Amino acid sequence: MKMMYTLDFHSAANFESFKKLTLPKNVEEQQQYRLNLVRNEVTEQMFDFLNNMSSSADIRENTDLRNSIVLMVKSITHFIGLDCAVYESIIKLRYQLLRMLNVDDASNEDTWQTLNVSCTLTQLFCSVCCQSNDLDVCHSEEWLCPSCGKQFEPSIIEQLLIERVNQLLVAYTIQDFKCTRCGTIRKHNMSLFCDCCNGVVENVISPDEFRFNLEAIKKIARQHDLTRLAELCEWTLF
């Protein structure tokens, strides 16, 4: 027979006694509680997750799946590691998890990188103060000149972004192919394999990267009501 326990919070005395039982009393106890949480529950759940993924799918052969898991591991360990009390433990956990994913310690793959989108227009000329400045159109709600504070003409920004889309399209169309094994650029256009190591060749600019850049510019067009730019992005992505 199972016995059910309930807590009565109707009285202030019961509530205060419950807090004393569950909450750490001081800073040292709080830090130790978080440390135990990382060493026990977080570590166990992360290892179980990777083991389950390894048993259900081959991570080594599925590159997209592996990259997603590596990104997830780096994200979780990075943000938990912002707590100084658990930093050393989370660094050890990240090392063990990335080793399970065959990530080289000497490479940049195990390093956390801020996930942000940037689209910078360089040497943008201001007709008011006659100064040239760089402008990140993704991180600026209002496109103001850094020198005088006057707003840039949206039509000028739109035309520059249209040229950027055309440049992306041309670069993707006439791009080279490189070997996935040794990184050598393909010399013969009709060859499916590398001349040096017989490895498989792939695009230098992947379709996902090309689509991601266009989606970012399309989002800018919608936020600032740039009709021509939005139509161009939709037509290119179609």
Automatic annotation (TrEMBL):
Q: What does the record give as the reaction this protein catalyses?
A: DNA(n) + a 2'-deoxyribonucleoside 5'-triphosphate = DNA(n+1) + diphosphate
Q: Name one GO molecular function term.
A: single-stranded DNA 3'-5' DNA exonuclease activity
Protein EC = 2.7.7.7
The keyword Metal-binding belongs to this UniProt entry's keyword annotation = yes
Note the InterPro entries from the entry.
Answer: POL2, Znf-DPOE
An annotated GO BP:
base-excision repair, gap-filling
Q: Where in the cell is it found?
A: Nucleus
Indicate the segments forming the DNA polymerase-epsilon zinc finger domain, all copies: 174-230
Main function:
DNA polymerase II participates in chromosomal DNA replication.
Full protein name: DNA polymerase epsilon catalytic subunit
Family membership noted in the UniProt record: Belongs to the DNA polymerase type-B family.
Q: Which cofactor does it need?
A: [4Fe-4S] cluster
Q: Carries keyword Nucleus? A: yes
Short name of any one Pfam family annotated for the protein: zf_DPOE_2
The domain of life for this entry's organism is Eukaryota
GO CC, alphabetical: epsilon DNA polymerase complex
Q: Which organism is it from?
A: Onchocerca flexuosa
Alphabetized, the UniProt keywords read: 4Fe-4S, DNA replication, DNA-binding, DNA-directed DNA polymerase, Iron, Iron-sulfur, Metal-binding, Nucleotidyltransferase, Nucleus, Transferase, Zinc, Zinc-finger
